[in-house]
Amino acid sequence: MQWTLVIPLKPLARAKSRLSDTAADGVRPGLALAFAQDTVAAALDCRAVADVAVVTDDVLAGRELAALGARIVPDTPRSGLNAALRHGADAVREIHPQAAVAALNADLPALRPLELSRVLDAAAEFPRAFLADAAAVGTTLLAAAPGRELSPAFGTGSRARHRVSGAAELGLREVDSVRQDVDTGEDLRAALALGVGRYTAAASAGLLIPGS
Known about the structure:
The protein has about 210 residues and is an alpha/beta fold.
């Protein structure tokens, strides 16, 4: 099964506020963009991915991610993460009504295409499926088969909400790069230990990472 990924990205100036212990206000937008660039680049290299749609109103992010090959969908609802994901999924299915759609976090800088393929192949066995984040509290990927609504419930505690919604939880091992999102300095240290992409490596050079 080939998937279209929907990746939401808030305006860079407001992104990654919880990284304040690691990066100054002037640095965080560049880090958020780098995370998204590495996420999109890895996703587009994944054999199970046919297309990547990024939902954002940020002009710089839109330009840079389009240059990598992503399709940019304006965040016209402007009503938060889940509204952006529903809008992105609807935009995809307006063009390809039978598309298999998966929501993916934009902050997976260590993402490996082969690991993402494993997750998507496993998700194809279910009407809806999700992968919990490294902290086992949130969600990094939510997938919906053709003809199924995505019904995203991202945010704090989303693992439990997605499970209650009927989505199957994927219990895969050795897909750490798909689980390791970055909200805090500790998360960034964990991602760096896995091995981040070139954009994040450049953007994080010289930062004082907690625990390093």
